[in-house]
Amino acid sequence: MLENIKSFTILFCGLLCVTSTFGQQAYSASPETGIMNFVSSSSTIESDKTKGSPYLNDEFVHGEVIVNNKVELIGKMRYNAFRNEIEILDNKTSTSYYSLLKRAYIGVEIGNRSYNIYTYKDSDESVRTSYFTNLNEGKLKLLFKPEAILKQARRPSTSYEKYVPPTYVWNNSYYILRGSKDNEVNHAFKVRLTKKNILELTGEKEREMKAYVKENKLNLRQEKDVVSFLNYYNTL
Length: 236
Fold this sequence. Notes:
Elements: H1 2-26, E1 36-42, E2 61-67, E3 70-80, E4 85-89, E5 96-100, E6 106-110, E7 113-121, E8 127-134, E9 140-145, E10 148-151, E11 167-170, E12 173-178, E13 189-191, H2 195-200, H3 206-216, H4 223-233
Antiparallel strand pairs: 1-5, 2-3, 2-6, 3-4, 4-5, 6-7, 7-8, 8-9, 9-12, 10-11, 12-13
């Protein structure tokens, strides 16, 4: 009888350890070394001071941090399109968050969107880095850059005008990234979704791709049709 009690005690303690381990894997209570900025901020949005939101999703939702193609952290996350940051909820308090380090080898999946850091050419030809969402894979990749801009408050200059609070406005854009060869570094470049612009990307295959667009009745001003177009082109 004593042996049975000892065996049960050992089994019970073992199950507690396993349960605790899986709980930590599900939602880590503390930041992982090397991938987080150890600076926390309030997780609430000050909607009384600003109009609109800098988030694609205001609420923290399930997400995964992927480092060198391996899931390193699972938690509740959201993307701040004004600060260009991934915010990860601190599960110890649930009232603050940590921001993820911006590194090319660190990717994130939040809901049905994946976020990765890429370099891109700005309008003045300077090279910058930002989070983008991948819309397809292959030698010609379409990237979506969600961006929120904060417009300053407008104070009334006459008694007939009304005060307009600081307002977040969205300035989303698309970029193209060509596959690199050897040690060549390619930077994403901005593109407007038009038939002319997208067809020009295909070079010597332009005539064939033009026929493909006509045959499949694609509207190259629409994101989903551009993705279909590029997915086919990437097989040629």
